[in-house]
Write a structure and sequence with these properties.
- The protein is mainly alpha-helical.
- It folds into 2 domains: 16-94, 3-Layer(aba) Sandwich (D-Maltodextrin-Binding Protein, domain 2), CATH 3.40.190; 101-144, no CATH class.
- The chain contains 6 helices and 4 strands.
- The strands form 2 sheets. The protein has a two-stranded antiparallel sheet with strand order 1-2. The chain has a two-stranded antiparallel ribbon with strand order 3-4.
């Protein structure tokens, strides 16, 4: 601000639940900061509603962003071929899956997996599941930490 006295920067941070509530109310109302960090899963929702502006081409084009960032996290910042933001992290909400090569090998499954359908993912998950002699599952073949992206 010393170098740009006509600019005022106010940094705000919120606990996660307050943050989500804040963007869910402030963005549709048009009452938000000029620069915000939102999860990529929210980008298209607000871009399609007109609450987010496309990134200016003089800042970065989509082509340039595709050269700089991995496709998965960048996908959370693009909608309909337009760039709205830049990835700040890689998170499972961007469509990633973590797999354990040793478990795939032990189950006799191809690694890396070459899933083409959800049914193939589920079939492998069933084969990766381990149940003890007492009938209690000891290893889950697939696990979600939440269901946000399944909604």
């Amino acid at each position: 601000m010393k170098q740009n006295p006509n600019v005022t920067i106010k940094y705000e941070t919120f606990p996660w639940d307050v943050f989500i509530q804040t963007i869910q109310t402030s963005l549709p109302a048009g009452n938000t900061a000029d620069v915000i960090l939102i999860p990529g899963g929210y980008t298209c929702r607000y871009a399609s509603g007109g609450q987010l502006l496309e990134a200016p081409a003089d800042v970065m084009t989509l082509d340039a962003a595709q050269e700089m960032f991995y496709a998965a996290p960048l996908g959370g910042q693009t909608c309909d071929g337009k760039l709205y933001g830049f990835p700040a992290e890689y998170n499972l909400e961007y469509g990633g899956a973590y797999v354990n090569p040793a478990l795939f090998e032990a189950a006799g499954l191809t690694y890396p997996p070459k899933w083409e359908t959800w049914d193939e993912v589920v079939a492998d998950a069933k084969k990766l599941t381990t149940v003890g002699p007492d009938g209690v599952m000891t290893v889950a073949g697939m696990h979600y930490t939440n269901q946000l992206q399944l909604a």
